[in-house]
Write a structure and sequence with these properties.
Elements (H helix, E strand, L loop, with lengths): L6 H4 L6 H5 L6 H14 L4 H8 L6 H8 L8 H8 L2 H13 L1 H11 L3 H12 L8 E2 H10 L4 H16 L9 E2 L12 H7 L15 H14 L9 E5 L15 E2 H6 L3 E2 L10 E5 L9 E3 L3 H7 L3 H14 L16 H13 L13 H14 L9 H6 L1
Antiparallel strand pairs: 1-2, 3-5, 3-7, 4-6, 6-7
Helix pairs in contact: 3-4, 5-10, 6-16, 7-9, 8-13, 9-16, 10-11, 11-12, 12-13
Organism: Thalassovita gelatinovora
GO molecular function: peptidoglycan lytic transglycosylase activity
EC number: 4.2.2.-
Length: about 400
């Protein structure tokens, strides 16, 4: 099962100078000629470049997949319960034991906890079982030729040629996700070039077939994205009946002492990092699950930009490290899709930027909900309710 792309792709837009300066479109064969010239200009031999492109074909299925990207519409509790199955828990714990020496090296070299990578490994490819069957070279060249995001995909093609030149990529046989991610933790060619690690010592970085390579590379990539060694990322908490709910969300980080003074307490055990700033995360409002997110939580958004996915992956990482099942609480009911669209229209009419009227509780809609809750004197926890809808 595939999940949203890394932030590199999700953040892409069709505007800006990068797009204007990046060749795209035209005949596919002519486009490949241009790519070959770029690769040769970067130092590759004609034989290497011709060898890479010998089997490359346009892939209409990759284009179709790009245009039907899904967006998470489930609330956090429902989504987490669907993804975090007993099977994934059991496999995660078994793999933690099987690859303990690899995880020990990752913690030593990159400071990343086993639970973090185990969760990504589980969600991205079910521990390597489902890695995608799109021909990677075909997909990357096709998406680079397409004029939606050529400035993102063209460098990935050139990176794939680099991998091919050193014997770590077969353009005829390498397969993965529709947007070019490869291997057990789904990394793009450029990320593999920059962060690939030969974890098993065979002289190659093989993210598709070697768990040590994939895990070590994922750990290095997280470090590259800003992961802070040895620090926690998420901790479940209990919140008081009353507090300034407008301080909750991903924008406000406060010392734990301030959250504690407001009545926020760890649900179990002690504070994991009393000296670190933290954000209060209420994915379903003040009556639902509650967490504090430490600075490392922000790194998840560099890997993926879906709030629900990020929170679920972060929470699953804590579960794999021994945290209890979260308390779902008793949140106000989720608005229906039609109600969410109605709410978004009302918010837009009040001048809020909620993006597309699509019935999805994205970051823009959450921010607008919180602002209107505060204006109306309602608990400003960013969770849309029928009460808010009526008052608007």
């Amino acid at each position: 099962m595939r999940f949203p792309l890394p932030a590199l792709l999700l953040a892409a837009t069709l505007t800006g100078p990068a797009l204007a300066e990046t060749p795209c479109g035209g005949s596919f064969s002519g486009f490949i000629t241009g790519l070959k010239q770029d690769a040769i200009a970067q130092g590759h031999s004609r034989a290497t470049v011709d060898g890479f492109f010998a089997s490359v074909r346009q892939d209409q299925n990759a284009l179709a997949a790009d245009r039907r990207q899904g967006v998470f519409t489930l609330d956090f509790t429902t989504f987490a319960r669907r993804l975090i199955s007993k099977n994934r828990m059991d496999h995660g714990q078994a793999n933690a034991r099987k690859y303990q020496s690899t995880f020990d090296r990752i913690e030593r070299d990159f400071g990343v906890s086993p639970g973090v990578l185990l969760a990504f490994w589980a969600f991205e490819t079910d521990f390597g079982a489902v890695q995608g069957d799109f021909n990677t070279a075909n997909a990357l060249v096709t998406l680079a030729h397409d004029c939606r995001r050529p400035h993102l995909f063209r460098p990935q093609v050139l990176a794939a040629i680099d991998l091919y030149a050193r014997g770590d990529f077969d353009p005829a046989r390498t397969t993965g996700a529709w947007a070019g991610e490869i291997g057990m933790v789904q990394m793009l060619p450029k990320d593999i070039l920059e962060n690939g690690v030969d974890g098993d010592g065979d002289g190659h970085v093989s993210l598709k077939t070697s768990a040590p390579d994939a895990l070590m590379s994922g750990g290095k990539m997280l470090q590259h994205l800003g992961w802070r060694a040895g620090e926690p990322w998420l901790q479940e908490v209990r919140v008081p009946a009353q507090m300034d709910w407008s301080l909750s969300g991903t924008d406000t980080a406060l010392p734990l002492s301030q959250w504690q003074a407001m009545g926020v307490q760890p649900r179990s055990g002690q504070w994991q990092a009393p000296g670190l700033p933290a954000k209060l995360i209420l994915p379903q409002g003040r009556n639902g699950p509650a967490f504090v997110a430490y600075p490392n939580f922000d790194v998840y958004f560099e890997w993926n930009q879906s709030f629900t996915y990020v929170l679920t992956a972060a929470y699953f990482g804590t579960r794999l490290m021994g945290a209890p099942v979260f308390d779902a609480g008793n949140p106000d009911p989720v608005l229906s899709g039609a109600q969410m669209k109605q709410l978004q229209k009302k918010l837009a009419n009040r001048g809020h930027d909620v993006g597309k009227i699509d019935g999805i509780l994205g970051a823009g809609t959450r921010a607008a909900v919180q602002a209107e809750q505060k204006r109306l004197g309602l608990p400003a926890d960013a969770w849309p309710t029928t009460n808010l809808l009526g008052k608007l």
